[in-house]
């Protein structure tokens, strides 16, 4: 076979192959408009439902409403002296709502540092404590016990121990952040639980498995108008069985602890007569405060703070006040109760 004939045969083969491939593609377009099976149709073993195209932008909780606070002229002190993990800007929605209702909110780092703690709290109706990472001294705890015994109100926001990753110009690292005021809250029968919570049920979280829903357990002024509260970094409250503390909110069914995967409806908010303990801090932030019924719940908490009595004279700590000191608004001691997987019985 001559060289020219070989070249001719190869060229003919290439032309035929190109025509066959092009014809097949054109035929597919003419018949079905596309080549192959459309995405998400008739494909065996496709992704779970939550990853389908129609679920890429799922519905989220509406961010509406207004933080309503009982009117008056009360004074609230916000603790900022114990390594508290918040920025003042985080609390602006709550401070604005309290101001609009006629109240005054002061951060403790703006108070005269020469004042004794009992002098700082005197004349205040409420004390707000948000995620302190340092403990309260025996003297401070004694003053707060005197404050609640005289009718003052305290609200504590706490989160379970978690690792946070930080980045910088020369690298990053992980730090562990823990709630530091169990030595204060234990004397009222409550403390923060050991693990964060999560819920993978779409109807039980706010578009994030760690953003859990909580619902009221029984009737309480704190739950009025707030049927669903979202906790974006929620934990659970450990309540001493022999204490006067009562569970106000609990996580919805399907909730589990993040590390041990124990299922249960965990207490997320508990209270005594004059102290409320909330196992989350994010719901105060502007990005979360208007989710679900959060703004109603925050308004109820602020109304609780401003409704406290404001003792003009408050006893200070004495030399006998120590770590095991008693309280007139809760049990004494530092014992704890391990949470169980049982569903809590609704309060009556």
UniProtKB/TrEMBL annotation:
A family per Pfam: DUF4350
Chain segments annotated as coiled-coil in the UniProt record: none
Compositionally skewed regions (Low complexity) per UniProt: 329-348
Organism domain of life: Archaea
UniProt KW keywords: Membrane, Transmembrane, Transmembrane helix
Domain DUF4350, chain residue ranges per copy: 115-300
UniProt-annotated stretches for the region Disordered: 41-61, 309-348
Regions that span the bilayer: 7-31
Protein known as: GldG family protein
